[in-house]
């Protein structure tokens, strides 16, 4: 089985210090959390950034400073900025970090309810537009799919030439509005992508570690972090993203799955580097 790629989603756009005081906002806090995750075994940092007061931003300069700070402490880590940003942002606002030419970025493959009255909007034309820009800049998209229909959308756009292979999916499961995070849901998602595609799973909240464990067994990859879950165990807040990554590493070791370095992750994902 391929080595395990661990992605750390250290910050997110919606989670706040009220949920867990260790959620990073400042450049220093973001670099600290990235380093903790990297040292624990993460090879990819999925990155959102904030203003110092915690409000989410997709500002290119803020991304530049945060990415430089991460790079200083984590020499070879893959930095994967979000193009999802936060609910309500415009397309141009969301796209800003790709102009820093990261190796990877997220590409959200459909619209979904996002709790309450929130809608995370990704029309077909938006997805095509983002995919085209990323292709032009040579950025590997991580195809974020929150439901099975979004896999089908990604496959259609791949067939039409908008999204280049090798395809790499991120099954985001357990969002209030997307597919749930039961074992049968993960089996269904994993069986719905082409055999030569790779996948990682993001379990939201209580689904995080059970789905991570399934992915380790099934040959998929794993994302954990404060963006998705702030607890290390039931009712106990995680001290850092590093603690969440350490838990995945422990489970993987018990199950006999080795952890990929960033360069090994590049090879598995077909990133030139
Ligand atoms: N914050 C969510 C609305 C992504 O990073 O591409 C979108 C999100 C997805 O987090
Ligand atoms: Zn994100």
UniProtKB/TrEMBL annotation:
Q: Name what cofactor the protein needs.
A: Zn(2+)
Q: Name one GO molecular function term.
A: 3-keto-5-aminohexanoate cleavage activity
Q: Is Zinc a UniProt keyword of this protein?
A: yes
Entry keywords, A to Z = Metal-binding, Transferase, Zinc
Pfam families xref list: BKACE
Does this UniProt record's set of keywords contain tRNA-binding? Answer: no
User: Which ranges form a coiled coil?
Assistant: none
Q: This protein is called what? A: 3-keto-5-aminohexanoate cleavage enzyme
């Amino acid at each position: 089985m391929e080595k395990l790629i661990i992605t750390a989603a250290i910050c997110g756009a919606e989670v706040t210090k009220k949920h867990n005081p260790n959620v990073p906002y400042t450049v220093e806090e973001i670099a600290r959390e990235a380093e903790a995750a990297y040292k624990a075994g993460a090879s990819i940092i999925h990155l959102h950034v904030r203003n110092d007061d915690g409000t989410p931003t997709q500002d290119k300069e803020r991304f530049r400073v945060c990415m430089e700070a991460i790079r200083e402490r984590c020499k070879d880590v893959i930095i994967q900025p979000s193009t999802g940003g936060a609910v309500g942002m415009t397309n141009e606002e969301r796209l800003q970090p790709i102009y820093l030419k990261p190796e990877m970025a997220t590409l959200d493959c459909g619209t979904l309810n996002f709790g309450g009255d929130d809608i995370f909007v990704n029309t077909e034309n938006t997805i095509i537009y983002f995919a085209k820009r990323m292709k032009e800049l040579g950025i590997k998209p991580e195809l974020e799919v929150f439901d099975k229909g979004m896999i089908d959308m990604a496959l259609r756009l791949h067939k039409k030439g908008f999204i280049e292979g090798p395809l790499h999916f991120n099954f985001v499961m357990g969002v209030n509005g997307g597919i749930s995070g039961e074992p049968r849901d993960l089996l269904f998602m994993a069986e719905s992508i082409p055999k030569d595609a790779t996948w990682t799973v993001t379990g939201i909240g209580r689904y995080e570690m059970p789905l991570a464990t399934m992915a380790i067994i099934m040959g998929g990859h794993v994302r954990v972090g404060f963006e998705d879950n702030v607890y290390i165990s039931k009712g106990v807040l995680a001290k850092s993203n590093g603690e969440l990554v350490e838990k995945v590493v422990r489970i993987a070791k018990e199950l006999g799955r080795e952890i990929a370095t960033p360069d090994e992750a590049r090879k598995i994902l077909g990133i030139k580097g």
